[in-house]
Write the structure tokens for this entry.
Amino acid sequence: MLHRTRAEQVLEIYEDFVERFPDFKSVCEAEPEAIENELSSLGLRWRARNLHKLSCEIERRYGGVVPRNKGELLELPGVGNYISSAFLCFSENIPEPLLDTNTVRIIGRLFNLKINDSSRRKKDFETLMRRLLEFGDCRHFSFSMIDLAEAVCRPSSPLCHECPLKLSCSFYRRSHDETDND
Ligand code: SF4
């Protein structure tokens, strides 16, 4: 639901949705059009179809309980690497790296790695995220990364002086040195 819309706007739609469809069974038993209508204001018609298919598969294969295994998750319709990792991390607190535009931006700046569109699929980013996850719990770590990316390590004009990571950050050190040398 957060694909294209800000959290504050999604909240009410999400709450209505889970009240009307509290589990996978209720989503599966509904007409696909009913799910589409619920999500239409978010511009997610295609995702509504996937959600219906996904709910029916979870009901059919796993009796309505989402599997905790990455391989099984990836076999479900509409579930790719990011969604399966997000489920394992946020719901189960299993250490799975979440690589998206935001986390890749932070990691790239911290460790001076080149960032481009394919960075989130690169092994070195994944390896670094896995190493970092060894130092804390996955759920809190990933929420912190999301908050940091939104509030401080923004795509342009990052607020480095306010950043708790600045003393370990290559980007900060480089820009600091350049300012000192001016
Ligand atoms: S110091 Fe700046 S570039 Fe480095 S992580 Fe913090 S906000 Fe991002």
In short: Residues 106, 109-110, 152-153, 158-160, 163, 165-166, 169, 171-172 surround iron/sulfur cluster (CB under 6 Å). The chain is about 60% helix and 0% strand. The radius of gyration is 19 Å.
